[in-house]
Request: fold
Amino acid sequence: MPVILARIDDRLIHGQVTVGWSERLRPDRILLANNAIAADPWQTRVYSSTVPPDIDVSILPVSKAAASLGEPEHQDERVLLLTGSAEEMAELVRIGVPITEVNVGGLHFGPGKREMLPFVYVDRQDLKAFTRLLEMGMTLSAQQVPGGREYLLDEEQIREMGEKF
Amino acid sequence: MIKALVITHGGIGQELVRVTEMILGPVPGLTAMSNSGKSAIDITARIKEWQAEIPDDGGDDFSASDRKLILLDDYGGSCATSAQLACGQDPDTAIISGVNLAMLLGFVTWRDSGDFEELVAKVVQKGREAILLVGGR
Reply:
C-alpha cells in the first residue's frame, strides 16, 4: 500500500510518469484516480496500454481509488498515485489516502489559468484545492521529473498567486 | 489527397516537416503539432480540429472524405495517447509511432499512388529500414 509518489498531472499517464518517475522509483502499480476515464472502457484501454508491462495499472473512480489502496492484496505494493487535478487529490486525502506529500507535476495552460511556474498554470479552483491540501497537513512541491528543480508551494505563495486574479 | 499530421514532443515535428520540405519542396496537407505547454485534453481537442479541417492548397485536392495519417514520435507519451483518444476509433485515420525523416519522405513520395493500407504499410517499413547500425559495432 505505500504510496511512493502522489502526483497531480493533467497529462495523466505519460512519459514523465511511465519513464521518468517509474525508472527512478520502480513502482509496482500506477493508480490513476479519474472518474471520466474509469467510466470509459476505451479510454481505460488507451491509458493502460502506455504503462510498461512490468508495472500493474489500475484506473478507478476517485471514490474507489482510496479503498483500493487499503485492500489486503495490495498491502505490499509500492504505488504511484496519479490525479489530473488538485481537487481530485484533495478529495483522495479527505477520504483518507495515507500520504503526507503531494507532487505537483504538471498543470498546463487553459482558459482562465495563470502561470504560477513554467509547468504549473492555475485558476482559483486549483489554488483552493492547494490550500485544502495544506490544511490537511500535506507538503506540496512542484517538480516535473526526477532530478528536476523542486519548488516548495507554501501558504504564502498560494496567497500571493491568488491576489493575481 | 491524404493529409498527415506529425505530433511530437518539443519541436521535433516542426523540424521534420521543415526538413522534408527542404528536400522535396512544399508539401500541402503535411503539418506538425507539438505537445509543449498543452494538457492532454487540449492536445486531443486540437487533433480533432485537424481531423475535421480540409487543407487549403489553392485547389481542390483535399476533401472531407480523404483518409488521414498521424505520425507520432513515441508510443506511451501524451501525444500518442491524445492521438488515440481523438482518432483511434476512426477507421479512416491511421496512426503510426516512431516517426523519422525517411517515413515522411516516403509518405510524400507515395501518397498519390493508390491504396491507403499499402501506403501505411510502406511508410512503416521505410521507417524500420532507415534504422541501421552504420558504423562501430
